[in-house]
Amino acid sequence: MIRFESDYTQGAVREIIDALVKTNMEMTPGYGKDEYCLSAERKIKAALENDEVDVHFLVGGTQTNLTFIASAIKPYQGVICADSGHINVHECGSIEACGTKLLQIPSADGKITAREIYRIVSDHIEDVNREHAVQPGMVYISFPTENGTLYSKNELKDIYYVCRKFGLILYIDGARLGYGLASEENDLQMKDLPYLCDAFYIGGTKVGALFGEALVIVNDSCKKDFRYMEKQKGAMLAKGRLLGLQFDALFTDGLYLDISRHAVELAIRIRDAFTRRGIKLFYDSPTNQQFPILTKDQVDTLSKDFAFSPWCKFGNDFVVRFCTSWATDENDVDVLIKAIESL
After folding, report:
1. Taking Cα atoms as reference points, which of 306, 305, 307, 275 lies closest to residue 293?
2. How far apart are CA 30 and CA 97, in angstroms?
3. Taking CA atoms, which of 3, 31, 72, 282 is between 20 and 30 Å from 132?
4. 234 — alpha (psi -120 to 50), left (phi > 0) or beta?
């Protein structure tokens, strides 16, 4: 069975494994105060060309989202997000379980617009009974989205403009950030991000690390006492150097973007194979996730040799997801393409 159902089925890049083995018996301070976390922080700031941001290393995406959102907005405020947003559909209600309401915007492709955000906030302000309703306090978006789609630089500028106009925090979930930045259709650079949002995280779990995310806080008002919330939410790792080592490796000699490009290039080959076969894609994704629309017979045929994820029904057909990663083998993609051509 060749697996394409997710981008976190394998361990970590060799550089990380080697670093973990080499330093295994070293004794270092805990909780992210070690030399490897400090080195990784310096390298991330260098990649961003910004020394003013704060960098925190957390264990996983759900912990990062939950912890930052809890720390950044008031208890009576809510988070605007796409109805397909990860915090809404794939984190077991963690945000709302902690008392923060999600203010969903229906989205066909996983993206939301500045105009939609403006409307939600304006409607709240103009509501004479607004004090009885949840106040919008943050906008959450993903880059790439859950559907593999991308925001352009101008779209992010427009969204951030609206957020600043109304005093909302703009937070970007970067679980697959590398795969978005590596796309040929992307017009952003990593160094642009601190000027387009208040906080974002650099995904490691899905992009070459064993586990871990690097949260970058830009807005000074969100920086103070963040580590208290990190500890309270169970997101602070005692053996923090295990996180620092990984990001130190990922941000050495351009490794993070190099392995991301590998995944995207193979995903585009898969996309093109489906297109040549006359099979349509449900989303226009230029990243490492592809969503073909297959008949039941096609699903059954491919399922014999390949693992992939069911996504949704589309009439009598099925939308499924094929996902590549930093570790995807080119030979496996060749085998899949031959199978697609034989459908």
Report:
1. 275
2. 29
3. 72
4. left
Dihedral angle of Cα 312, 315, 316, 322, to the nearest 10 degrees = -30
User: Do 80 and 119 meet the contact criterion of CB atoms below 8 Å apart?
Assistant: no
Spell out the residues 6+ positions from residue 240 whose beta carbon is closer than 8 angstroms to its own. 30, 31, 32, 33, 34, 37, 57
The bridge status of strand 199-203 relative to strand 169-173 is parallel
Per-residue tokens: 155: 């779209």
Exposed (0-12), middle (13-18) or buried (19+): which is 221, by Cβ within 10 Å?
A: exposed
d(CA 184, CA 22): 36
Q: Any idea which residue has 């925001």 for tokens?
A: 151
Q: How far is CA 99 from CA 169, 250, 287, in A?
A: 18, 35, 34
Q: pLDDT, tens digit, for every residue of 222-272? A: 999 999 999 999 999 999 999 999 999 999 999 999 999 999 999 999 999
Query: What value does the CA radius of gyration of the chain take, rounded to a whole number of Å?
Result: 20
How many CB atoms within 10 Å of residue 132? 7
CB 151 within 8 Å of CB 141: yes
Instruction: Please give the Cα distance from 68 to 200 (Å, whole number).
Output: 10
The DSSP code sequence of 263-283 is HHHHHHHHHHHHHHTTPPBSS
Side chain identity at residue 83, one-letter code: D
Confirm if 197 and 170 have CB atoms less than 8 A apart: yes
**pLDDT for the residue numbered 184:** 97
* Contact between 5 and 323 (Cβ < 8 Å): yes
- Count Cβ atoms within 10 A of the Cβ of residue 134 and give its class: 0-12 exposed, 13-18 middle, 19 or more buried: middle
Tokens linked to 152: 């352009």
In a 3-state reduction of DSSP, which class is residue 314? strand
pTM: 0.97
The alpha carbon of 255 is separated from its chain's Cα centroid by a whole number of angstroms, namely 18
